[in-house]
Amino acid sequence: xxxxxxxxxxxxxxxxxxxxxxxxxxxxxxxxxxxxxxxxxxxxxxxxxxxxxxxxxxxxxxxxxxxxxxxxxxxxxxxxxxxxxxxxxxxxxxxxxxxxxxxxxxxxxxxxxxxxxxxxxxxxxxxxxxxxxxxxxxxxxxxxxxxxxxxxxxxxxxxxxxxxxxxxxxxxxxxxxxxxx
Length: 181
Description:
It is a single chain. 60% of the residues lie in helices and 0% in strands. By secondary structure, it is an all-alpha fold. The model is unreliable at 1-13 and 18-31 (pLDDT under 50).
């Protein structure tokens, strides 16, 4: 019983933590929310990278506006902590490549978007880029309680509206099941 109570309390803490984190992300001050796993300099690089992976186009928000950075940071601080070294090394490599490409540049985030794209082409086959790409997509479209998809922006890009419950679309594949009910 004690183990069950401890599990329930830990689970409740996780839910409360997730809700508090989500409310921070949807507030007007969410852009300035401090990161937990990434340093401010690392967060700047990841934000620039996510902005190139899923950019804002024609007034539609991209990964940066949806808060993918905060999903990635939260993941690296919790359930995806094993990839933290991959991120640390990958960010350092991006900064080195940026500095080698353009004199007197401080790092990847300081490059123009075209220059960033050139550096990304150099690393697109690396495990680091593949991880950031997946995390950017997940962070843009996952539930906001996980840290990203601020104000359901990712869902709105797909034409989805937040609902308390979703019903499966009806069609030929579930016609028999619905007929029996």
